[in-house]
Amino acid sequence: MAPIDPHSFTDSSHPLTTHIALTLFFDFPSSTIHGAAVLSLSCPHTGPLSLDTRALSIHQILDPDTHSPLPFSLSPTPDPIKGTLLSVSLSNHSSFLIIFSTSHASSALQWLSPPQTFNKTHPFVYTQCQSIHARSIFPCQDTPAARVRYSALLNIPRELSAVMAAKHVDRRPPIAGEGNTSFLSQGFGSLWAAEGRVVEAFVMDQPVPPYLFAFAVGELGFREVGPRTRVYSEAVDSVLDAAAREFEGTEEMIRQGERLFGDYEWERFDLLVLPPSFPYGGMENPRMVFLTPTVIKGDASGAQVVAHELAHSWTGNLITNKNNEHFWLNEGFTTYAERRIVEVVQGEDRATLNAGIGWKGLNEDIERFKDNLEFTKLKTKQEGVDPDAIYSQVPYEKGFQFLLRIERQIGRAAFDEFIKKYIATFKFKSIDTETFIDFLKANVPGIENEIDLELWTEGIGIPPDAYEPVSNLYTKIVSLANEFKLGRMPREDEVADWQGQEWELYLENLPKSVEASQIQALDERYRLSESKDYEVKVAFLQLAISSKCRDYHGEVEKTLKEVGRMKYLRPLYTALVQGTGKEEEKILAKRVFAETGDCYHPIAQGVVESIFAKHL
Ligand code: BES
Ligand code: ZN
């Protein structure tokens, strides 16, 4: 047994899965998916084969041709991070059929009851699989080292529709017995072709890591926003219209991405705006990016998130980190690529402002990990570590800094050529840090004499040759924040054309704790606690909590009940529960979570629980 990924039971001596054929029956009343999956291997295998599962019931494993049962076993107790090992015993099989069901503990799935949706009439379900949650929907070798093609038949109530990060091929009546459905557990096979059901069929012809598997099912609508882009969301005209306006510049960004990084290989670039409980800003699911509704606010930041997820089409989805220890290859490259796109479509000042917000975030997270320096490295050891628990700006912003350092060394023109060649060389492959460094050295001879590559990839903290971004706007905002410490608030004329990102940078550069009266004065003048922009509102509320200004507990509670994006939950819950002399804050945090935790995505629930475990 030789693992290839600290977060997976996949065994390096076993063949990898190359194709998965999924048949999924959605039972909304019980929030369960009853499924059948045919896994095909790269070559026939005899003996045990290890698969990842989490919170799944495995009913049967069958020979796909004869339907005779194959022996299997599940590990008796789940690993707290990896889940449950499923071992199936094969005899020269190159494929096998698994019959399974999901459960309430399936961590990738959030089921929303009708009252939890915008229109309040139909249920909704969606996935979030990165980093290691695909295994809670279907058994698989849940490591990005394994790239799979797949097909999927989704059987759903006729009044709903489905989207996937895959090509939509059909919406049609179900056919009794198709796709191994006669084996579905608890008699759901016989309901497959029942009245009122419909099948949505999809295929993903390009090999993708399992964490890019994604679907959403609900009462969906869409608007066309470009030749290869639609924006989808719950069918609410006001949401769809606002989203269509927000993302009208998408085609221009795709063209800029192609100019910089090579052809767009995924055919479509659709966007799906999820309900407010979506735990991330955006998720780069191929062909169909998932987005939080909080990015729709009519300024530059919505396009910035789209630029980031679009950039993953090259860095992350074409070239993928081999496992999460090399996550910076995904996010550092994407942050660099995102800022190159933003620079062209929104100008250099905006790109530098984003880099400045990132620089601040990097410094804060380096501080956050001062007792756990491993996670200030680009390449990290993650044996026994939950990727959701160590999510930070380090892979994004230190990775960005590393690439910027190389760009500054060799010049932009040479670096642009290098990146294009890197993408063309490794597309549809999963690679590690060493592979990147070897490629860098081979293509930029002597680079190791100019930049300490080992310090950058394996060292802790921020290397001395990292580069704090400078621009007039950035410097002005940081110096205004420094003046606040001396008691001067920015004048109205100084902030007249500030957007959310300017305020965000300003607030993040204020001291962590100030006088309650200063907080109130700032808010009286600029109404930051009521901002429609959650970046601004949360940065302000965080400051208010850490300054023990209790006037804002009502706003804090409201915010924690409105949105489930972890970028907001993490700092607010942490600010409430960390430190001493904060009984009132701790009680508030516990009560709000007890009242609302159920409405968060399971991944977000887990993150809040781990914040409580650390501080309470
Ligand atoms: N791939 C990430 C989101 C992610 C990371 C999900 C790790 C699960 C585990 C996505 O591309 C991302 O970075 N989103 C950011 C967007 C931002 C950097 C513009 C987010 O959600 O805040
Ligand atoms: Zn990303």
Automatic annotation (TrEMBL):
Q: Name one GO molecular function term.
A: metallopeptidase activity
Q: Which domain of life is it from?
A: Eukaryota
The EC number of this protein is 3.3.2.10
Q: Which UniProt keywords apply?
A: Cytoplasm, Hydrolase, Metal-binding, Metalloprotease, Protease, Zinc
Q: Where is the active site?
A: E309, Y396
Co-factor binding comment: Binds 1 zinc ion per subunit.
Entry's Gene Ontology BP terms: proteolysis
Q: Where does this protein reside within or beyond the cell?
A: Cytoplasm
> Where do the annotations place a peptide binding?
Q128, C129, Q130, P279, Y280, G281, G282, M283, E284, R565, M566, K567
Q: Which cofactor does it need?
A: Zn(2+)
What residues bind Zn(2+), as annotated? Answer: H308, H312, E331
The text of the family note is: Belongs to the peptidase M1 family.
Which purpose does this protein serve, as stated in its record? Aminopeptidase that preferentially cleaves di- and tripeptides. Also has low epoxide hydrolase activity (in vitro). Can hydrolyze the epoxide leukotriene LTA(4) but it forms preferentially 5,6-dihydroxy-7,9,11,14-eicosatetraenoic acid rather than the cytokine leukotriene B(4) as the product compared to the homologous mammalian enzyme (in vitro).
PANTHER family for the chain: LEUKOTRIENE A-4 HYDROLASE (PTHR45726:SF3)
| Protein name (database record) | Leucine aminopeptidase
The species this protein belongs to is Rubroshorea leprosula
